[in-house]
Amino acid sequence: MTVLSNMALNTMSERIAKQQTKPMRLALLLSKPNIASINEHLTTVDTHSVDGFALALLHACEHLSSTSNDMVNIGDRLWIMSGLIAAKNGIHAHAYINGIALSNNQTEAVTLALKHAKRLHAQPQIVALDGCYNFSASSDGNATDDAVTDPANDSRSESAPHVSAPHTNETAQTALTAMVNLVESIASRCIPTQDKANGQYWFSAFHQSRVAALCYPTASGVQAIILTQGRALIAAKPLISTQRLWLPLSAASLAQLHTKLMGLSSQLHSAINDISLLELIKTSLLDYQTDAPLALVLMAADRRALVQEVSAMMTIIATHQQHDANSHTPIEYKTPAGSCLYSAPLGHNGLSFVYPGVGTVYPNMLSQIGLVFPDLYAELENQGDMQSMLQTDFIYAADKNRAAQMSLSQLAIAGVGASYILTKLLQQEFAIEPKFALGYSMGEAAMWASLNVWQTPHSMIAATQNSSIFTQDISGELRCVRQQWQLADDENIVWNSFVTRASIDELAPHLANYPRAYIAIIQGDTCVVAGCENSCKALLKQAGKRGIAANRVTAMHTPAALNISESVRQFYQQPLVENLPSQLQFISAAETQPVVLTSQAIAKSIADTFCHQLNFTQLILNAREQGCRLFVEVGADRQTTTLIDKINAQSSNSVSAMAMAVNAKGGDDVTSLLKCLGQLIAHRVPMSLSPFIRSLDASINTLSQQAALADGSSLICYSETSLEGEPH
């Protein structure tokens, strides 16, 4: 190393060390604030120097530590000002710089920067640029190779070799771009990754802000910058876009719907660009009439596909008017894309929320919902620990097999969490209110937790995680089974459950031969047999039936669970909210009439369902007798939807009914949601269209700004969708 380079290293190190003697809270903005009283200090990034960005950023930190009423602009990409000045002027930051450090390796640099930021407790998302200034980040947002999630516990040598960055004109600009992208990730609550199209929501510990570290090599060593979240949220991902089209049409008759479709078809052919296409959809939403007798929804992946959906819908209506009108056969039309029309809508009076049981969760479930509805997630995060609620260490792990390793309690918690979030989404964003609610197995607990009945539903997370009911009694070592079978502590239990296409009448005659096998659940044309694995297999063989092993250990809905009935009742006896829902009837599998809304009655109904055989078929038939018509499954995947449709098809009740799901494993979360909302509209269920309008306005605005930018007009500004209460 030359004397000159030694001097450069010492100068950089000394300057950063000096900054580390002072607290640092610098507000980062993605667009220039319109505040005349603040002086803008322009800093150009020297793209001819490998340290161009590092020095520009260091200069900004030094300048703002010595002056009070300035902001520094770096490369027309970032605006930086004192956090105190930002607060005094009512400017909400997208992120903050809280720490800075320089070392000979990344691990040490991140640790020192966290120490400066007073965030040593945090496990930051790390974005690292290598020696060639390439972005390096894994699917879970943590940088690969030299990046670590927990610098304090990193096992690698502190003397890891440093690779100097090449002296190119691109390095400084790349580092600046990486900083801008990381601020965008923080402000959108999206885990930093190169694959922005498939980014995942960035969960944080309860009441803790998101923390990220940007690391990049300089001629003097590895520089690390600690960024923390601000209050401002940038625009959400679109609910409707040019790649996901959705629009309703309402009318007084089928003939009017056909006329509107003809007009829409003409307008689609006339739309000259994406902006005019989205404006056309917005017009349709604004013209939509909630009280119109009929409505249809069109859904497609692009303009060409939408034209085809319109044509197919016109054909269906025309054919019905020509051939089926006199027969009074209603139209029940639904396409794979999501378009739908029901000429005899079921209405909203029979709208029922159905909550699935344990085992519906899957890797990366609901991963896009928080990015499309950031305001909702921000509110829910302020209310409770969403990391625990969704068991994010398992559900969103890079290793997709981790979800399969979840315990019964973890599966239960995550299942309730998914139902809770989707319930709040339907109620708070779309103003959809059910008339009835019911649950499949432990879905009854999810029902009470989600629908504003329990006073402190979040307290149930830790309680479920730690309760012996879930960890030892009906799962794990199966203490209640051991008691039921009178086994010694050292006697082994091999438990399993099997789904079999068989009726209870086909299985019941053989039960006496296998006292350790039980029919746990009756559900349409299938049953769930549970108990001693060998006994269950022998029972099915004798009955001439095949079974699909669930490979899940739970003694719910078997006689063994009766041994802990009182414990379950006490566990679920929770304080209730003061203003209980008055227009909503809660239906339990354990009772023929709606549950009385008292803490004691709710706890008893859950315990009775939990500890006895579950006859889901009878539950649905009973619900239909009480008025349920539209069954909407509110949870991860589609556990009950197909079952309900089969039960409805076999029912002697002549009144129409149908089931649908808000979510589906293997599909896009937002697309599944839109398909469900489309069916609800077609069945004339009232809902708010405001989320669609807001999304369209944002998309149209973005496209307009991009067009202006292409024409050489003003730079794109980042719009704030909301201001989130800043965590501690």
Helix-strand blueprint:
Layout: H1 3-19, E1 26-29, E2 39-43, H2 52-66, E3 70-74, E4 78-82, H3 83-88, E5 95-103, H4 106-117, E6 125-129, E7 135-136, H5 171-188, E8 211-218, E9 221-229, E10 232-234, E11 245-251, H6 254-270, H7 274-287, E12 294-300, H8 303-324, E13 332-334, E14 340-342, E15 351-355, H9 369-372, H10 374-383, H11 386-389, H12 392-395, H13 408-429, E16 436-439, H14 443-450, H15 459-466, H16 468-473, H17 479-485, E17 495-500, H18 504-507, E18 517-523, E19 526-532, H19 533-543, E20 547-549, H20 565-571, E21 585-587, H21 599-611, E22 614-615, H22 616-625, E23 630-633, H23 641-650, E24 658-661, H24 669-682, H25 690-710, E25 720-723
Parallel strand pairs: 2-3, 6-8, 15-16, 15-23, 16-21, 18-22, 23-24
Antiparallel strand pairs: 1-4, 1-5, 3-4, 5-9, 6-7, 8-9, 10-25, 11-12, 12-14, 13-14, 17-19, 17-20, 18-19
Helix pairs in contact: 1-2, 6-8, 7-25, 13-14, 13-15, 20-21
